[in-house]
Amino acid sequence: MKVGAGVRRFGSRLINGYLIEEGGRLTLLDAGLPGYWHHLLSELDAMGRKLTDIDAILLTHSHPDHFGVAERVRSASDAKVYAHPLEIPTLTGKTAGKPPPFMSQGFKPFLYRYLFHAMRNGVMKSVPIAAVNEFADGEVVEVPGKPLVVHAPGHTAGHCALYVKDRDILFSGDALCTMELLTGKPRPSVPADFVNDDSALALESLARLESLEAGTMLPGHGEPWKGGVKQAVEIARADARQWVKPKSTVN
């Protein structure tokens, strides 16, 4: 599905991955669940492209619903994988990621539908990535699309959004979603507390996104947002301030 200038979306209505095209070459931005392999191949086919057209894989963070097919793509295409250095130990399997405390916020029917979907699509079978390169806050990554790295910690310590200024697009990852994880309600939101390393820091990181004047936001979860990043931040911030207690400072 086309969701922006030279940008295609694949996956499901719950979890998104994206393909950025430039000059016939591709960047894969986030890599969904292992079970999304056929979704990726179908999207490539619709574009008239192949796996070997993927030059790079950019990962916003190291949760398994964002790097599921990354190693499979890397080994098939020889694409280079990039992530923030704080995420690399988990992505490469040197550090085991901890499952979030799913029961901590009570029984939520939508959450359990989400978990069932993730389990059915192999969330527990994500394969560590053999080689991951570092990108840094403020760096323009020299890959198709040339996105700017924006460190936005809180969901994870090394979580990053990617900004493509000339296409007026922000890939927000899980720093800012357009679907509430607990309810499935379609609205800009900070992820639920139990999936964040530091919810207060995640709230503060919204200021880093707010300064980016992108008209379109493409999140890790939920539908594309066309109302501008500033408006999305305002909505999410107003909601999050009701349940997040300030305690951290963005460095």
| Corresponding CATH superfamily | Ribonuclease Z/Hydroxyacylglutathione hydrolase-like
CATH class membership: Alpha Beta
**Proper CATH architecture:** 4-Layer Sandwich
Largest sheet: 7 strands, mixed
Shape: globular
Question: In percent, how much strand structure appears in the residues?
Answer: 15-25%
What is the H/E string? EEEEHEHEHHEEEEHEH
Number of strands: 11
In whole angstroms, how far apart are the ends?
A: 37 Å
Question: Which range best describes the helical content: under 10%, 10-25%, 25-40%, 40-55%, 55-70% or over 70%?
Answer: 10-25%
Query: Low-confidence parts lasting 5 or more residues at pLDDT below 50?
Result: none
CATH topology: Metallo-beta-lactamase, Chain A
Oligomer: single chain
Write the layout of secondary structure elements.
Layout lengths: L1 E3 L2 E5 L4 E7 L2 E5 L7 H11 L6 E5 L11 H8 L2 E4 L4 H4 L17 H12 L12 E2 L13 E4 L8 E5 L4 E5 L25 H12 L5 E4 L9 H12 L11
Parallel strand pairs: 4-5, 5-6, 6-7, 10-11
Antiparallel strand pairs: 1-2, 2-3, 3-4, 8-9, 9-10
Verbal overview:
The chain has helices at 37-47, 70-77, 88-91, 109-120, 199-210, 229-240; strands at 2-4, 7-11, 16-22, 25-29, 54-58, 80-83, 133-134, 148-151, 160-164, 169-173, 216-219. It is α/β, with parallel strands linked by helices and 251 residues long. It has one domain (2-96, 109-240): 4-Layer Sandwich (Metallo-beta-lactamase, Chain A), CATH 3.60.15.10. It has a seven-stranded mixed β-sheet. A four-stranded mixed β-sheet has the order 8-9-10-11, with helices on one face. Helix 5 packs antiparallel against helix 6. The N and C termini lie far apart (37 Å). The mean pLDDT is 94.
